[in-house]
Amino acid sequence: MKRRDVLSALGSLAAAPASAQVLSLPPTPIVPGPGDVLVSLETSLGAIIIALKVKQAPLTTANFLQYVDGKLYDGSSFWRAAKAPSAVDYGLIEGGLAGDPKKVLKPVAHESTTQTGLRHVDGTLSLARREPGSGDSDFFICVGEAPYLDANPAAEGDNLGFAAFGQVIKGMEIVRKILNLPTPGEATNPVMKGQMLMPVVPIVTARRI
Known about the structure:
The protein is α+β, with helices and mostly antiparallel strands. The protein is 15% helix and 28% strand. The chain is built from 5 helices and 8 strands. The chain has an 8-stranded antiparallel barrel. Strand 3 (76-83) and strand 4 form a beta hairpin. It starts with 5 loop residues before the first helix and ends with a strand. The model is unreliable at 1-9 and 11-25 (pLDDT under 50).
């Protein structure tokens, strides 16, 4: 498939590869890697702790940490839950500042998975984007393996995938809870119809730990 922004690439998860939708979920890693920076996203439902892969994806992690250290994510939210019609939990939750012009910083250069060696697996934190190099504050967390979000040099069109840059090490039960919340919210982009959380899930604080 052609790589577009996360709005269209996962707009209809029914179109995702069938084999990806039935994969059993691998165990979530519980130990951070060497050099990882830990960040806690404190939501209204509990904390999601993420190990940022600074060595593998330095530009994307530095971008994310600008928002964390500037406390710009405080009061933001998870506002989208895109779930596949599958027998297992499969999809993603998306959060961030949703384009708030008062808080969004300049975009960061794209770090593809072919550069970083990272992959979109269960619990991966990745940067939302439109064209390559347009990612800023919005991010998503995968539930289940999503290899079609990795870069694929053999694909036509925009084949650079999304910039994976972290891994949930604690709190995947919160991620899955968000994925299964009601999504009756109004979608300004028709691709996201049926995926907008209402109410959204507040991100109370985002801090290094």
